[in-house]
Amino acid sequence: MKNTQVINFHIKGDERGSLVAIEQLKDIPFEIKRVYYIWGTEKEFLRGKHAHTELEQILICVSGSCKIRLDNGKEKQIVELKDKNQGLFIGQMIWREMFDFSDNCVLVVLASEYYDEKEYIRDYNEFLETIRTGINDSI
Ligand code: T46
Fold first, then answer.
1. In this structure, what DSSP letter does residue 2 have?
2. What is the pTM of this model?
3. CA 57–ligand 1 middle distance (angstroms)
């Protein structure tokens, strides 16, 4: 889906175990302004349910697994994150829902912007309307 991408990070492994390094503007397409992580979400809960007008992010499941439903207003896609060297890029104006969290899931998120509640679209009809009218330049 346009404006989303699964990125496979290079694993530097030896007999001691594995290591993944992520460098801004090299392994991912933006400068990192914020890092946050999510854990302890039980299987029946749904997180996300919003889109961002400005923010770009990379989601990485560094433990366990979860699924992400991506929706650009026209098509939907589900991505399962379960590999520690895999990141999901989500660009602007993509509705996302995270679900099916495993017990040990830790989801790390690298974000291109500081936290700003004003650039969240949390109403699905408003999201569709913004897509339809093309108000956001990134669409
Ligand atoms: C996203 C998905 C993948 C902050 O104070 N600072 C922060 O940087 C963030 C991300 C959240 N918060 C506060 C806002 C809420 O009071 O933490 C609380 C939980 O946030 P939210 O309900 O938005 O969490 P999720 O898991 O639904 O969504 C989060 C991100 O907000 C969002 O940008 O794309 O993870």
1. T
2. 0.96
3. 12
Is 40 part of a structural domain of the chain?
Answer: yes
Q: 114 with 33: CB under 8 angstroms?
A: yes
Closest residue by CA, ligand 1 atom 25: 48
Query: Per-residue pLDDT for the chain (139 aa), expressed as one digit of tens each?
Result: 999 999 999 999 999 999 999 999 999 999 999 999 999 999 999 999 999 999 999 999 999 999 999 999 999 999 999 999 999 999 999 999 999 999 999 999 999 999 999 999 999 999 999 999 986 655 4
Half-sphere exposure of 127 (CA within 13 A, CB side): 21
Whether ligand 1 lies within 6 angstroms of the CB of 72 is answered as: no
In a domain, 138, yes or no: no
Count of domains for the chain: 1
Q: Which domain holds residue 66?
A: 4-12+23-133
Give a yes or no: residue 139 inside a domain: no
Q: Do the Cβ atoms of 106 and 37 come closer than 8 Å?
A: yes
Indicate which atom in ligand 1 lies nearest the CA of residue 55.
33
CA of 129 to the centre of ligand 1 (A): 23
